[in-house]
Design brief:
The complex is a heterodimer of chains A (404) and B (272). Chain A is an alpha/beta fold and 404 residues long. Chain A has 15 helices and 15 strands. In chain A, the strands form 3 sheets. A 7-stranded mixed beta sheet of chain A has the order 3-2-4-5-7-6-12, with helices on both faces. Chain B has 2 domains: 181 residues, 3-Layer(aba) Sandwich (Pyruvate-ferredoxin Oxidoreductase, domain 3), CATH 3.40.920; 63 residues, 2-Layer Sandwich (Alpha-Beta Plaits). The chains are: A alpha/beta (404), B alpha/beta (272).
Chain lengths: 404, 272
């Protein structure tokens, strides 16, 4: 530790450090617990002369998103952050940012939609807005993800906004040592943002076509494809997977740490008969559970799901050929439909000739504490299913607080 | 891995103490994780924080349920058996308590050391913020973190005179804290319910939150009702043109003392 620059900091400060190192030019933030201190740290950096950035106080989250959207369009590197209800209030302009293919980076400090405590329902409520979604398990990953997000979002093959989710309270206010990369290396890794100057009249039509807004042509000639706007946007997100992987690899080479392949990270899945899939901080605690079970000789592993949008379908299809059962831990529920992870995982595996069993667990909603033993129980059940034993029910609300 | 649980009250700085400990431990090459437990805390309400110290990155993201060490920043909370919940057999309690550990009222299979952190805070900081004093005791008793590292972390966070005052508190506590002894007090159950019952309307009595108690000199009181207007907790009533106080509602914030135009209210240290 002593050779590098470390500081003991909260998740929110790690996020603000990511913003500072990325030399963000415009940020707009409206206070909402538990994300508020990000704005305070950024304001402090600006006041100390450490960051040259326009921090715009707005009247609400709808405005903050509209402000960064406009600033991004005219060429600024932009940042916005929110939590829970603020995220919901921001929903409408989020569509505009992504449809405009603007590389805005947003931190979502998770706060559930049924109270103050964390779960992933805030960001999961934005699945249809056309943003890339990442989920983080510790404060270091928060800082690193902000830098990687700008590099990915601004890549001309991508040009999409990225939301970085991390669990409120559990990370936002918890302090731990975080390595601060040096500014020169970040500058080399992340060159200045080169906007596509689509606001100029001669570039407008071309830019709109490039972004998939081909319907204007359709209106004019009667022959355009009114679906093009959706199709091109959808395909752009799917195509971002390769860039996400590439950026993660390069980050690893330069800074000495990376996050799986950028989409998923497999942990002790060698010879595993069963794996659990977890997101955010549950993935961190799950590592301890998997270590304990492995020490007892149980062939279980973990897949940490970092990139939820675009969903790593190919990675799970490949995994599905190796394991007999997968237990998806969802810190969210789409009411009346089910866990978002569970649904996507089953969708991804359906086309395999031989499919593993897919079990679902709801855990950690509304801030419910997920302990090591709780995850062991989920992995035990998944292992049972892998070995052909009947498990019932397939999807359950995990009984938490099991001790240990 | 060493796991620590801290108990205090909003305003005493339990969360800050926890972060300072984490930073101090990090200076010594340890990996630390400092978790505050947030609810709808307010000044005076019981708060809890957790600390993990290890040689490698801590991956557990749950709270600490079976601490090796319990640190209590408040003398009233220090007497509550609830602070011992989950404490490992033979574990350690470091309490802000105005009497020597031989007189500490709780018993069981644990070691205990005490320090009058409130008195030290009043001497050095002129206010009952006990967090830095208790850190001096932590260093002395556990040896887990050097007192120099704690001082460095404090000065990093509070540069200048404020930091120096706090360093002074740490040093005095370090000098005055005795080594722990086997707890000799009474083994009993906690009858007051959970320690961190957060949320408005849940608290039956705020009496235990007070370091100081407002006491009226009715001869000086002119009956102007300024105290009644300013009391944020509706603890002051009115009878026969003079104030009455419901001390269960009074958390000892001192606003009435500050506002009284005739200085008829004295702020007296609560006895333990």
């Amino acid at each position: 530790m002593e050779h590098k620059s470390f500081e003991v900091m909260t998740g929110n400060k790690a996020c603000a450090w990511g913003v500072k190192l990325s030399r963000v030019q415009v940020a707009s933030i409206y206070p909402v617990t538990p994300q508020t201190t990000i704005g305070e740290y950024i304001a402090e950096f600006i006041a100390n002369g450490e960051l040259k950035c326009e921090l715009v106080n707005a009247e609400g989250e709808l405005a903050t998103q509209a402000i960064v959207k406009a600033a991004s369009r005219v060429g600024a590197r932009t940042f916005v952050c929110t939590s829970g209800p603020g995220q919901l209030y921001m929903h409408h302009p989020m569509h505009g940012t992504s449809s405009g293919r603007l590389p805005v980076v947003m931190a979502t400090v998770h706060r559930g939609n049924k109270g103050m405590q964390p779960d992933h329902t805030d960001l999961m409520s934005q699945l249809w807005t056309g943003w890339i979604q990442w989920y983080c398990e510790n404060n270091q990953e928060v800082l690193d993800s902000v830098i990687m997000a700008y590099r990915t979002a601004e890549d001309k093959r991508v040009r999409l906004p990225i939301a970085i989710g991390y669990d409120g309270y559990i990370l936002s206010y918890t302090s731990e040592p975080v390595e601060i990369p040096d500014q020169a290396s970040v500058d080399e890794f992340l060159p200045p943002y080169e906007p596509i100057p689509n606001i100029l009249p001669d570039k407008w039509a071309e830019a709109q076509r490039g972004r998939g807004a081909g319907m204007m042509e359709g209106f004019m000639s009667g022959g355009g494809d009114p679906q093009a706007a959706w199709r091109i946007h959808h395909e752009a997100i799917l195509n971002s997977k390769e860039v996400i992987k590439e950026v993660n690899e390069e980050f690893g080479k330069r800074f000495g740490r990376k996050y799986g392949n950028g989409l998923v990270e497999e942990y002790r899945t060698d010879d595993a008969e069963a794996v659990v899939v977890a997101m955010g901080t549950i993935a961190s605690t799950a590592r301890v559970a998997i270590d304990r079970m492995r020490s007892e000789g149980k062939p279980v592993g973990l897949v940490k799901l970092k990139t939820f949008v675009p969903f790593p379908t190919e990675d799970f299809q490949e995994l599905g050929k190796r394991v007999r059962a997968i237990g998806m831990i969802d810190r969210n529920v789409c009411l009346g439909l089910g866990g978002a992870g569970f649904g996507e995982l089953r969708r991804a595996l359906y086309d395999l000739d031989e499919r593993p069993k897919v079990l679902g667990f709801y855990a950690g909603l509304a801030g419910a504490e997920v302990r090591v033993r709780d995850i062991e129980k989920m992995a035990e059940k998944t292992l049972k299913a892998a070995r052909g034993e009947k498990v019932d029910p397939i999807v359950e609300w995990a009984k938490l607080g099991g001790g240990g | 891995m060493i796991e620590v649980r801290l108990h205090g009250r909003g305003g005493q700085g339990a969360v800050t103490a926890n972060e300072i400990l984490a930073e101090a431990a990090y200076y010594e090459g340890k990996y630390a994780q400092a978790i505050p437990m947030y609810g709808t805390e307010r000044r005076g309400a019981p708060v809890t924080a957790y600390l993990r110290l290890d040689e490698v990155r801590v991956r557990e993201r749950d709270l600490v349920h079976e601490p090796d060490i319990v640190v209590v920043l408040d003398p009233a909370i220090a007497q509550r058996p609830a602070i011992l919940e989950g404490l490992k057999e033979g574990g350690l309690v470091i309490a802000n308590y105005p009497h020597p550990p031989e007189l500490y009222p709780l018993g069981g299979n644990f070691m205990v050391s005490t320090v009058d952190a409130t008195a030290i805070a009043l001497e050095t900081l002129k206010r009952p913020i006990t967090n830095t004093a208790i850190l001096g005791a932590f260093s002395k008793v556990t040896g887990l973190v050097k007192v120099e590292s704690i001082e460095k972390a404090i000065l990093h966070r509070f540069p200048g005179p404020l930091g120096e005052m706090n360093v002074n508190a740490v040093r005095r506590a370090y000098e005055r804290t005795p080594m722990p002894i086997q707890a000799r007090g009474e083994v009993r159950k906690d009858e007051e319910g959970p320690l961190s019952g957060s949320g408005y309307g849940l608290i039956r009595s705020a009496a235990g939150w007070r370091t100081f108690r407002p006491v009226w000199d009715l001869d000086k009181c002119t009956g102007c009702r300024i105290c009644w207007i300013f009391c944020p907790d509706n603890a002051i009533g009115w009878a026969e043109e003079k104030p009455t106080v419901d001390y269960r509602k009074c958390k000892g914030c001192g606003i009435c003392v500050n506002e009284c135009p005739t200085k008829a209210i004295e702020f007296k240290r609560e006895g333990i």
